[in-house]
Design a protein that fits this description.
It comes from Ceratodon purpureus. The chain is an alpha/beta fold. The chain contains 10 helices and 8 strands. An 8-stranded parallel beta sheet has the order 1-8-7-6-5-4-3-2. Bound molecules: D-xylitol-5-phosphate (DX5) and zinc ion (ZN).
């Protein structure tokens, strides 16, 4: 692999999922996890319809924004993402990731609206959704900035990592060396090697970080997993 291609692979971003934090103390949890070395705050938005769980919405993002300058990586597990773009812009969200399964007819308009609002656009896909479904969104004239490959069925924290999703990550990395590729669900020191060696660079981890005795150590281990894989470029071999 030549040096130019190597340079194009974006570096590690560790994004603890606030779903596993103490929702009654979000501001202090965000401050704590930033001090532990996190790059992004991953915010799981669930509507009780697209997934069988209810979490938080724009009002909570807005409140938390008053207490942190960190990048808020919002993952919308909702049936109608278009309905929430304006609210999330106003609330101070940094990234807006919608699911491809519910956006087949309007993803172009959705990406345009997200980017026009100053947010980064991401597209997520469930474990059973073929990777080809996101190719048009990456190759569009107004492309998404990130693809989130779900490594569990969306809806809940604390589930087991699904290694069968790794070929999708590797196919994406080989096709798009420059792309931010995020994995979400069951990531931990035990599973980071598989995900990083497949080519993921944005790592979401909820229970493994917030449930740890030493969250800073876990974040360091996750980052090292990505750095090691990038040093050997094993995902291209
Ligand atoms: C699941 C969410 C994840 C979840 C990850 O639907 O999208 O972000 O919080 O939690 P862990 O890391 O515990 O699997
Ligand atoms: Zn998520």
């Amino acid at each position: 692999m030549d040096k130019n291609l190597e340079m194009k692979v974006p570096g590690a971003k560790i994004a603890p999922s606030m779903l596993s934090s103490d929702f009654a103390n979000l501001a202090s949890e965000a401050k704590f996890i930033q001090e532990c070395g996190a790059d992004w705050l991953h915010m799981d938005i669930m509507d009780g319809h697209y997934v069988p769980n209810l979490t938080i919405g724009a009002p909570v993002i807005k409140s938390l924004r008053k207490h942190t300058k960190m990048f808020m990586d919002c993952h919308l597990m909702v049936t109608n993402p278009m309905d929430y773009v304006d609210e999330f812009v106003k609330a101070g969200a940094s990234g807006f990731t919608f699911h491809v399964e519910v956006s087949k007819d309007n993803w172009q308009e959705l990406v345009h609206k997200i980017k026009a609002g100053g947010m980064r656009a991401g597209v997520a896909l469930r474990p059973g959704t073929p990777i080809e479904e996101v190719f048009p969104l990456v190759e569009s004239e107004e492309p998404v900035d990130m693809v989130l490959v779900m490594t569990v069925e969306p809806g809940f924290g604390g589930q087991s990592f699904m290694p069968e999703t790794m070929p999708k990550v590797n196919a994406l990395r080989r096709k798009y060396p420059h792309l931010d590729i995020e994995v979400d669900g069951g990531l931990s020191p035990a599973t980071i090697k598989q995900a990083a060696e497949a080519g993921a660079n944005c790592i979401v981890a909820g229970s493994a970080v917030f449930g740890a005795k030493d969250p800073a150590q876990v974040i360091t281990t996750l980052r090292k997993g990505v750095d090691d894989a990038q040093a050997s470029q094993i995902f291209f071999k």
